[in-house]
Amino acid sequence: MTVAIIPVPGVPMVRPGDDLAAQLGDAIEAARVGVKPHDVIVVCQKVVSKAEGAVVDLKDVEPSAFAKQLAARSTMEKDARAYEVVLQETSRIVRMDRGHVIVETRHGWVCANAGVDESNGLGPGVLTLLPRDADASAEGLRSRLAERFGVELAVIVTDTFGRPWREGLVEVAIGCAGMDPLLDLRGRGDLHGKELHHTVVALADELAAAAGLVMEKDSGVALAIVRGVRYAPGTEGAAARLARKPEFDLFR
Amino acid sequence: MTVAIIPVPGVPMVRPGDDLAAQLGDAIEAARVGVKPHDVIVVCQKVVSKAEGAVVDLKDVEPSAFAKQLAARSTMEKDARAYEVVLQETSRIVRMDRGHVIVETRHGWVCANAGVDESNGLGPGVLTLLPRDADASAEGLRSRLAERFGVELAVIVTDTFGRPWREGLVEVAIGCAGMDPLLDLRGRGDLHGKELHHTVVALADELAAAAGLVMEKDSGVALAIVRGVRYAPGTEGAAARLARKPEFDLFR
User: What is the pLDDT of residue A219?
Assistant: First the structure.
């Protein structure tokens, strides 16, 4: 079955306190793309963070001594207060070199700068943080949009992450509701009856990357619908299951 | 613009020496999905490796002392000769623990087991290797398919890789022809005229992951067409550019 990745333009400039579910629903209606059963609604982290007020104004930040040291050693002319914000979102530093800071966030994600980013739209010096609980954000959007459109659907919140050993960024899932983010094929036979081993697909990450194809980073498309993908029902704290547990992590 | 990810069933059981370009073209014709200008033809590594004869029969392998040690320490009941095949494809071992072997391959990819896999279809004890030069494989398929269908197109060869810190596998690009695998947005303004920094998208990997949505690992779909994605023209050795150079690698 062909999968369609449908960009949904028209999400307005989101500000803290906005009703994002209503804004996304309005954009979907205006785009006249409809919502069909089992659609996956993909929304980028930045608008979720803005709506939830997960933003920090650098003028309210006092850098620690460590943040000042990082800024002094950076080759990137980055504000010590920005490093301070990153450190406040960090539970563990994974790599630190030439101003690059790869950390494990409070949420358990390993990424650059703890997901802290320039806000693009809330004024200079305002940074976005990752949503406090992006699975809960996804669930909130899912229940509102499912009610509005009268169909079962899933919601994925994405962010743009780098990867070790590979150039370029890709969209990944940091929040998920209404679907199992992992597709477990272990034990299923392939075409020839041979048992497949150890194959668990990161379905939510493949969906996020697919949505990334239409959410070009400079096009202002913060919302996409992926239509035609089968998935298993979701549980609470779905995307959190994509974060590998330390005891299974060879790269800790 | 909506992107379509079109599964193309009907690729036969590929065997060493087969004319894969003809087989893929026949499957596309039989599926009546056509080929449109700038389609991206995505094909999984395993059929490429089989057609090119990048396979090894374990009965022809003599395990080294090191391979035997690995097998003895493994918790996975893996044949010492299989470890020997992995080591022969390896230029550097990145992590080795409890039978898991994450390596840098001769081609420069960091992945589990050097991309060596059970062949599913060539008989028990036959393993597939990664194509010797998957960019060249992609270019060979691209030129043949472009000629057959009379349109410009791109070809991506994918494999299924794990990732540090995240559960589940995703499809990534290991070969690419006809398109730039990286989408460089640096310096482009966003909606609000603010310059975007450091944003290079791994477009070929997002395309591979998107194709993964229809190339389910147990469905026997080895071929997909992604339609509606804009990309820049390609160069030789395209996917090789996705392998991060050691001097920029924080995880070496």
Answer: 63
